[in-house]
């Protein structure tokens, strides 16, 4: 099996072959999820804990559904009412969780690197559901699967990632993944929403939507992450939409068969025109949601296999 990772902390650690392995397995789970009976016993007897320090209804429900369809016992920890709010450190939380003997720990945290730190302190497999401005690996993987199914391939495409790149871990993970798969990458948005050192990211940078979308196969819009902004990054939402919000006029600069993506939740009339977001001929936003469950099932399946193999080797070692 071409997937040996113990955790899924980011795309950076994955090889192109491992990425393809995840996507190929996810294709099988897409088929399973479209059946009348959607259950599998791949994670039967295993415990999955979803630990979300940041709210995300979409991501948490997707992971919860994925685990339940694979037969895991799934527990959502309410951080708002937990010991974390009473002053417990992240390390203490990790030790407490470890004592519960979970098999899969899905973590979302507002600080970059927090998920990596937890992974060093627990005996189970850890999946990063988003940490600070660092990465959101399963979002990039579900985006990749959506693109591959819509375009028939995941190589040699021109992908324009537009909007609030500076605050987006989704953009970072997608840049890494799509770069590994040999695509032409563009970042489009105002200079105030571009990250420092953007010229070193190995992609083209545009401040004009018409230029940035010219000939694009994929147009990926990003959410304006106002909760991460502490200054005047944009003049106004109205002005932002006028210059950088995706509408039919701007999309006309892309290829006629270009697909439109958005990780959600969308701010209609700010980042994207509502009618365009719902256009089944151009928008694959609902497909992204569907692919999210399948990709997360594939990731947990692969990590569980590696975890079982590791525990089996340890058991044999204690018997020798």
List keywords for this structure.
single chain; 320 residues; alpha/beta; five-stranded parallel beta sheet; 14% strand
> Could you tell me the radius of gyration in angstroms?
20 Å
Low-confidence stretches: none
Q: Which structural class matches the secondary elements?
A: alpha/beta
Alpha-carbon distance between the two ends: 26 Å
Largest sheet: 5 strands, parallel
How much of the residues is beta strand, in percent?
Answer: 5-15%
What's the total number of strands? 9
Overall geometry comes to globular
The mean pLDDT is 92
- Work out the oligomeric state of the chains in this entry: single chain
Written as H for each helix and E for each strand, in order along the chain, the element string is HEHEHEHEHEHEEHEHHEHH
**Arrangement of strands in the largest sheet:** 7-6-5-8-9
Number of helices: 11
Query: What percentage of residues falls in helices of 4 or more residues?
Result: 40-55%
What does this structure look like?
The chain is built from 11 helices and 9 strands. The strands form 2 sheets. The protein has a 5-stranded parallel sheet with strand order 7-6-5-8-9. The chain has helices spanning 16-33, 57-69, 90-99, 114-121, 137-151, 169-180, 209-213, 237-244, 248-251, 274-277, 285-319, and strands at 47-52, 73-77, 104-109, 125-131, 158-162, 184-188, 204-206, 218-221, 259-261. Helix content is 41%, strand content 14%. Helix 3 crosses helix 4 and helix 5 (137-151) crosses helix 11. The protein is globular. Strand 3 (104-109), helix 4 and strand 4 form a beta-alpha-beta unit. With 320 residues, it is of the alpha/beta class.
